[in-house]
Amino acid sequence: MSIFTPEQLQEAHKRSIFHQQEILSSSICGCFYCLSNFAPNEIVEWVDSEDPRGMTALCPKCAIDSVIGSSSGFPVDDKELLNRMRKFYF
Ligand SMILES: [Zn+2]
């Protein structure tokens, strides 16, 4: 079982917003609300379109802005990470 520190969870959370480039360069994405995994091209909705840092993806399964891409370096297909983040942020 993986252990993630609160600092790691906070770092991962920062990668869930304004991340369009990182998401599009990821091989897989994970949602820490519904805990699903999906490919970047399954994402159809983006918000924060006015933000110069980049748009934020909405999860294609639950429409929550809680998506992290594998290019962040975090193991987004690790259910333990997604579960810890859900408990931390929801
Ligand atoms: Zn979701």
Annotate the secondary structure layout.
Blueprint: H1 6-14, H2 20-24, E1 29-31, E2 37-38, E3 46-47, E4 56-57, E5 67-69, H3 79-89
Antiparallel strand pairs: 1-2, 1-5, 3-4
Helix pairs in contact: 1-3
The structure holds zinc ion.
Structural class: alpha+beta
Could you give the order of the helices and strands?
HHEEEEEH
Mean pLDDT across the residues is 96
Uncertain spans: none
Q: How many individual helices?
A: 3
Q: Level of helix content? A: 25-40%
**Quick one: overall form?**
globular
Q: Rg to the nearest angstrom?
A: 12 Å
How are the strands ordered across the major sheet? 2-1-5
Question: Would you kindly provide a written description of the structure presented here, covering whatever features stand out?
Answer:
The chain is 28% helix and 13% strand. The model has no long low-confidence stretch (mean pLDDT 96). It has three helices and five strands, in the order ααβββββα. Helix 1 (6-14) packs across helix 3 (79-89). It has helices at 6-14, 20-24, 79-89; strands at residues 29-31, 37-38, 46-47, 56-57, 67-69. The protein has 90 residues and is of the alpha+beta class. The structure holds zinc ion. Residues 31, 33-34, 36, 59, 61-62, 64 line the site of zinc ion (ZN). Zinc ion is lined by residues 31, 33-34, 36, 59, 61-62, 64.
